[in-house]
């Protein structure tokens, strides 16, 4: 773990985090930026390989993070007040883990010091996604990859 980082996520609640700490919880996997489908019968959420039009398919970073809400109105902006709703986030997500009172995984950049480790460990979908611009919405079911939960 980088020497200059204290394990603030273990000693603070989400509401106590400053903006820099909050943003640093993001591991850069990009999974929250994948399109999801909800089963109307049991409300299960399924992730697809289809990425938001603003997501860089290789780096898993938003190409216009500051303006994403204006360009993609249904983009979900995570806030500490939504922690009870984080069950749809992948189980590896730093926001979800901290909300559940758990520690971050060893590959997380705050522990490993390596922002690319999320890709090296194949946690992200880097190189395995397709842009929503290239898939008809009627075909999204063909791109399911896992169920959230």
Short description:
This protein is α+β, with helices and mostly antiparallel strands.
Query: In percent, how much strand structure appears in the residues?
Result: 5-15%
Largest pleated sheet: 4 strands, mixed
Number of helices: 6
The helix-strand sequence is HHEEHHHHEE
Count every beta strand, where a strand is a DSSP E run of 2 or more residues: 4
Return the structural class.
alpha+beta
Low-confidence stretches: none
Range of helix content: 10-25%
**Mean of residue pLDDT values:** 91
Instruction: Evaluate the radius of gyration.
Output: 16 Å
Integer tally of domains = 1
Outline: globular
Distance between the termini: 28 Å
Kindly describe this structure.
This protein is of the alpha+beta class and 149 residues long. It is globular. β1 (34-38) and β2 form a beta hairpin. Strands 1, 2, 3 and 4 form a 4-stranded mixed beta sheet that branches. It is built from 6 helices and 4 strands; from the N terminus they run ααββααααββ. It has helices at 8-11, 19-24, 68-71, 94-99, 109-112, 117-120; strands at 34-38, 45-51, 130-131, 144-147.
Per-chain topology:
Layout: H1 8-11, H2 19-24, E1 34-38, E2 45-51, H3 68-71, H4 94-99, H5 109-112, H6 117-120, E3 130-131, E4 144-147
Parallel strand pairs: 2-3
Antiparallel strand pairs: 1-2, 2-4
């Amino acid at each position: 773990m980088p020497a200059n980082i204290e394990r603030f996520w273990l000693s603070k609640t989400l509401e106590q985090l400053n903006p820099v700490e909050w943003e640093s919880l993001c591991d850069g996997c990009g999974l929250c930026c994948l399109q999801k489908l909800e089963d109307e019968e049991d409300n299960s959420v399924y992730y697809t390989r289809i990425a938001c039009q603003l997501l860089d398919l290789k780096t898993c970073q938003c190409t216009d993070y500051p303006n994403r809400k204006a360009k993609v109105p249904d983009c979900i902006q995570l806030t500490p007040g939504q922690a009870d709703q984080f069950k749809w986030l992948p189980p590896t997500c730093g926001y979800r883990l901290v909300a559940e009172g758990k520690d971050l995984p060893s590959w997380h950049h705050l522990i490993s010091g390596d922002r690319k480790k999320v890709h090296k460990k194949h946690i992200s979908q880097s190189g395995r996604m397709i842009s929503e611009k290239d898939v008809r919405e009627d075909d999204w079911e063909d791109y399911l990859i896992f169920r959230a939960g």
